[in-house]
UniProtKB/TrEMBL annotation:
Residues in the signal sequence: none
PANTHER family, per database record: CYTOKINESIS PROTEIN 3
Protein name in the entry: Transglutaminase-like superfamily protein
Lineage: Bacteria, Bacillati, Bacillota, Clostridia, Eubacteriales
Source species: Ruminiclostridium hungatei
Residue intervals of the Transglutaminase-like domain: 156-250
């Protein structure tokens, strides 16, 4: 069928496991392939010819970017074999194909982790045209299994995440969900998020994939880190909170939890220097994680674009003795259950803008504390936060949120949301 065919070597993509690496390099061969309809393809990637029986679909490409998009779409659709009819510059076609394939494979770390074998290719080319055939992509999951993952990710996110949570609270909820619902697969046969969700068993690759998908669904920017742990290949997540990056290893936290029978946070939000005590990785491939983690770091210490007069970075001075509250972390001084907070701003505020959507208190589980009231103080720039009639729950931590919807008499709002954390005796 092809003349002057050049064979490119197969590349084996073995899943990274917490323990052993398995892989089999397969010989290049044409696989029986079902006819795939255009419903499974991106609208911009149109097949120019559909073959009957076992023949794969042929896609049209006019640039290296087109080739990359076609290969990536085929990967997402779990296609094992497909052809590209390329009309463009063929002077360096072999290198162009290799680079397009590499970019497509590495575009999304989740999809990359689902590939067990990256296909080689054969190419027949002439001036301005090339026929390219990929015949042996292999995957750990099917398209149907990925649709199952999509549905479960939506369900889980809806059940454990709410819009009032901070990114830290979302991250912790996802971390805890994974540890409570997934176990390490000692048979080393479950590599994916699908295995974690369907069987409740997986290896590090599956922990990382599931966390990656859930973080994305919750709006938390994150990456997958490839490195070494205990002299073996390993993967974990890198998450971005308040513009700072932190390392998170759910696999090892789950192992520690299983051993200690308590929920572990040993590998939760670590800096580069701390994760390097036990892990190895190429820091040049990832953004630096250098900021020490503090729960619910505040986003602002200003009102109406002006710094609160009594505030310093990370703290706000409130009227009265011993009324200094650390905003950057849970208050170190335990507060009484009937604590009334007096918040003083540098400008009078419009109390009509203080309502359930702009001012509320959330507990450490992410639930809105019921019975808390926000009232106007003796002066127009003072807001009183009064506790529930029965008081706050003993031993529990809370966070006061004052959102940007609260404005001054000059209709100027907070530059960013204000958060104040405290713990009850």
């Amino acid at each position: 069928m092809y003349t002057k065919a050049v064979k490119d070597g197969l590349i084996e993509y073995s899943p990274l496991e917490y323990g052993l690496i398995k892989g089999v390099i397969m010989k290049n061969r044409l696989l029986a392939y079902m006819l795939i309809t255009a419903l499974f393809l991106l609208s911009t990637l149109t097949p120019v010819q559909a073959f009957a029986g076992s023949e794969p679909v042929v896609y049209a490409a006019a640039s290296a970017a087109d080739m990359e998009n076609i290969i990536f779409t085929a990967i997402k659709n779990r296609e094992e074999a497909f052809k590209i009819s390329y009309d463009g510059n063929t002077d360096d076609i072999m290198n162009e194909i290799k680079q397009a394939r590499s970019r497509a494979v590495q575009r999304d770390p989740y999809e990359e982790g689902c590939i067990s074998l990256v296909s080689g290719f054969s190419v027949s080319s002439s001036s301005g045209h090339a026929d390219i055939f990929f015949d042996s992509f292999k995957y750990h999951t099917t398209k149907e299994q990925e649709l199952f993952v999509d549905r479960k990710v939506q369900e889980i996110t809806a059940s454990i995440i709410n819009f009032r949570m901070s990114d830290y609270q979302k991250e912790k909820a996802i971390h805890d969900y994974i540890l409570q619902n997934v176990s390490y697969d000692n048979t080393l046969s479950g590599y994916t998020a699908y295995s974690a969700l369907y069987n409740g068993l997986t290896v590090c690759n599956g922990y990382v994939q599931l966390a990656y998908r859930l973080f994305n669904a919750a709006g938390i920017e994150n990456m997958i880190v490839k490195g070494i742990y205990d002299s073996r290949d390993h993967e974990w997540n890198l998450v971005k909170l308040d513009n700072n990056w932190y390392h998170l290893d759910c696999t090892l936290d789950d192992s520690a939890s299983a051993t200690g029978q308590m929920q572990s946070y040993k590998y939760f939000n670590l800096t580069d220097s701390k994760i390097r005590i036990t892990h190895e990785f190429d820091s040049g491939n990832y953004p630096p994680a250098v900021t020490e983690f503090k729960p619910d770091k505040t986003e602002v210490t200003s009102y109406a674009g002006t710094a609160i007069p009594s505030a310093t970075t990370g703290a706000i001075q409130l009227p009265g003795p011993e009324e200094t509250v650390e905003i950057n972390s849970f208050a170190r001084v335990l507060q009484p259950s009937d604590k009334v907070w007096t918040l003083k701003f540098n400008q009078a505020i419009d109390f009509r803008t203080v309502n359930d959507l702009t001012a509320f208190v959330v507990d450490s589980s992410g639930n809105v504390a019921k019975g808390v009231t926000f009232k106007k103080g003796p002066q127009g720039n003072i807001l009183l936060v009064q506790p529930p009639a029965a008081g706050y729950e003993s031993g529990k931590s809370y966070c006061i949120y004052i959102l940007k919807g609260v404005v001054s008499g000059k209709t100027k709002g907070l530059e960013k949301a204000l958060k104040i954390l405290f713990t009850i005796k």
